[in-house]
Amino acid sequence: MRVAVKLLATYSKYLPEGAEGSAYEVEVTPGTTVDELVATLPVPGGDASVVLVNGRGPQPGQVLREGDVVCLFPAIAGG
Amino acid sequence: MYGWHGKVLRVNLTTGEIRTESVDPQMARDFIGGRGWAIRYLYDEIDPRVEPLSPENKLIFGTGPLTATPAPTGNRYMVVTRSPLTGALSCSNSGGFFPTEMKRTGLDLFIFEGRAERPVYLWVRDGKAELRPADHLWGKDVFETEDAVRAETETHARVACIGPAGERLARIAAIMNDKHRAAARSGVGAVMGSKNLKAVAVRGTRAPALAHPEEMKALCLEVVEEVKKAVEAGSSLRVYGTAYVPPVTNEVGILPTRNFQTGVFAHAEDISGRALRSKYLIRPKACYGCPIACGRLTRVNEPPYVGEGEGPEYETIASVGSACGVGNLAAITYANYLCNQLGLDTISTGVTIACAMELYERGILPESDIGMPLRFGDADAMIEMVRRAGLREGFGDLIAEGSYRLAERYGHPEYAIVAKKQEFPGYDPRGAKGMGLLYATSNIGASHMAGDIAYMEVFGVPKRLDPLAIEDKPAYVKYFEDIFTIVDAAGLCVFLSIRHLFEPTYRLEPVRISRMMEYATGAGYDEETLLKAGERVYNLERMFLIRAGFTRADDTLPPRMLGEPMPEGAAKGHVVELDTMLPEYYRLRGWDENGVPTREKLAELGLA
Predict the structure, then answer these.
(1) Rounded to whole angstroms, how far apart are CA atoms B370 and B588?
(2) What is the pLDDT of residues B180-225, one digit of tens each?
């Protein structure tokens, strides 16, 4: 199944070439958790990154669903 | 004294008398500096019910004990007065270079009283102050004024001034410094204008003495190295400025859109820091002593928006941009330049125009009153409204009054997205509930700077809180209000301070900032006394509001936030449960059920 990965702020540098805007689609096997997907991405782990699924913080162990948007950006003070 | 100079300059504009006063060391320590000292003076010296634009109001510029010290971002000052927009306090904050130079005159605070008969400006050179005629400057914009004042004083003088908006007593007028930096909010520029004070120019060589200079130097180096490392690793603030935020708030569903009718904007990517960087950025720009450099020096070459200047910041993008339905970054950037030039608060200006757009689209505000159509998304109409507001020209006369007075005039105050009559900044609180409680309770009306809990709710700094939850939010909001008070009063910037001077835990212990305060002042600060001082200042501000006639009924939000569920996005279906959070907040504050500090709380803080 397919989910979208959205990389904002300085994480845009990790976007694959040719990605339109800030997001790209990836194929994951059903049952994959959010954490498992995030672990495959080159972004810093732990508190250094904010991870959202469809705009909200995921539950521990949350399993991805078809069409989910997984958004990551660095935890940094804002406007 | 160390850290502080312990000197206040009192300028009576009515009589022209200027004198320097010494500060009581106990007061200095108990109220920290800048914002804290200012409320002590204001509370003691004016009737809180004074007409804000009358000579009886006082206008205070305040630096903190860490301003002009080696403390990174020790470049801030506060403007404190009774606000003509809200009737509450103003605590407007700005950085750049003026505040450091002001502190180097050997004076910590300037208090302006009365009203000059003719326009004047103040020139302070190393403790020597004089008022000079400013008739020839009246009518000039911010950029022209600064150039003229520097030409008449010293090339390296730093200038804070008002533009046409402040002269015309626009309730959304800013005090600009270093041309592009703004003590923006609550109409402080109108108070300056009402006093016929066009500008303040400063030049100084008197850095404050430090109590423990070696320890201070070591700690500051440690912090600077840490920040530099973060910046080299790719800090979003350095790379994109605060403009990196729109896609983030859009993802969370709280990017103010079409006067806060929704929190989702289709053009969020078009108005982001990435777009700004690729299209208009000349280079990042830092305030004095800042290793981050979140400022943006920009240039737009696209007609009719051609210009060069600083900005836009996120707050400007969210107000003159998405709140007005405008997704054209060139137009937003141009509107920012125009606000700076005229001396307008971009947040209140943008959100008031958004309010006018909603009134217009609902058929409440007739086109004949405006003189032109005013639809959401019309970038050129938005820019024309900015221009007219700054000059109080035509319908701009009403925009200059702010959203509340505009919407009330047309019989629909519910469309004014304000708290205590001040326009919301760039976070729709239906999707960040702590921000809702903050806007409602803030002593200065809706403001992110009053205790930006979005750090935790949206940005994960230093830890993430669920923005849609309300449990624990009263405690966090209280704590954030208190620590933002400390950072303001100390003369530092919140961006660096919250991240690097407090422990990165859910408790945010003020470890490094209390050490910095102690190394600078030697006044006996530790974590506990500093937190107590922050709470003391916050409570005295609250008492000012109580004496000005504010009640629990004023600690509220517009009906849209309390009763209209967010229509789409990640916060879909949510409102702000203020009635649940407010009593708990009062209880944690030690205030009674009407929001009045109890005698016990005041006694505990030494304010009884």
Answers:
(1) 47
(2) 999 999 999 999 999 999 999 999 999 999 999 999 999 999 999 9
The reply to whether residue B570 touches residue A74, judged by beta carbons under 8 angstroms, is no
CA angle B484, B545, B556 (to 5 degrees): 80
3-class secondary structure per residue, B561-596: HHHCCCCCCCCCCCCCCHHHHHHHHHHHHCECCCCC
Q: Is the pLDDT of residue B160 over 80?
A: yes
DSSP letter string over A35-51?
A: HHHHHTSSS--GGGEEE
| Closest-CA residue of chain A to B253 | A55
> Least CB-CB distance to B461: which of A52, A56, A76?
A76
Kindly state the percentage of chain B with pLDDT values over 70. Answer: 100
The nearest CA of chain A is from the CA of B355 a distance in Å of 22
User: A15 — contact with chain B (CB < 8 Å)?
Assistant: no
Beta-carbon contacts of residue B328 (< 8 Å; ≥ 6 apart): B270, B379
B245–A78 C-beta distance less than 8 A:
yes
Q: What is the longest distance spanned by two Cα atoms in chain A?
A: 38
Which chain B residue's Cα is nearest to A20? B269
pLDDT at B329 over 80: yes
Query: What residues of B are in contact with residue A10 (Cβ under 8 Å)?
Result: 234-236, 239-240, 244
Residue to substitute from B294, B314, B336, B461, interface A, most A β-carbons within 10 A: B461
Cβ contact, residue pair A9, B236, below 8 Å: yes
- Is the complex ipTM more than 0.85? yes
Structure tokens of B245? 């935020």
The full DSSP string for B76-99 is: -EEEEEE-TTTSSEEEEEE-SSHH
Per-residue pLDDT tens over the stretch A50-74: 999 999 999 999 999 999 999 999 9
pLDDT in tens, B118-134: 999 999 999 999 999 99
**Per-residue pLDDT band at B233 (split at 50, 70, 90):** confident
Residue B46 banded pLDDT, cuts 50, 70, 90: very high
**Residue ranges of A 21-50 with Cβ closer than 8 A to chain B:** 21-22, 47, 49-50
Q: Look at residue B230 in the predicted model and tell me its pLDDT.
A: 87
Residue B227 pLDDT > 90, yes or no?
A: yes
Question: Closest Cα to residue B356, out of B428, B259, B445?
Answer: B259
Residue A21 identity (one-letter amino acid): G
pLDDT of residue A79: 56
Q: What is the mean pLDDT of chain A?
A: 94
**Of residues B245, B229, B241, B238, the one with CA closest to residue B292:** B238
Q: How far is A72 from chain B (nearest CA, A)?
A: 9
Give the nearest partner residue to B461 out of A12, A52, A77, using CB atoms: A77
Quote the minimal CA–CA distance from B153 to chain A in Å: 35
User: What is the length of chain B?
Assistant: 608
Chain B hits for A76, CB-CB cut-off 8 Å, are 235-237, 459, 461, 499
pLDDT of residue B310: 98
Please check whether residue B166 is in contact with residue B343, taking contact to mean a CB–CB distance below 8 angstroms. Answer: yes
Q: Is A57 touching B (CB cutoff 8 A)?
A: yes
Contact B570 A22 (CB under 8 A): no
Helix (H, G, I), strand (E, B) or coil at B296: strand
Instruction: Yes or no: say if B108 and B326 are a contact pair by the CB < 8 Å rule.
Output: no
Looking up tokens 């403007």 gives: B79
> Above pLDDT 90, what percent of chain B?
99
Chain A nearest C-alpha distance from B480 (Å): 14
The answer to whether residues B473 and B434 touch, using CB atoms and an 8 Å cutoff, is: yes
Q: Is the model's pLDDT at B485 over the cut of 60?
A: yes
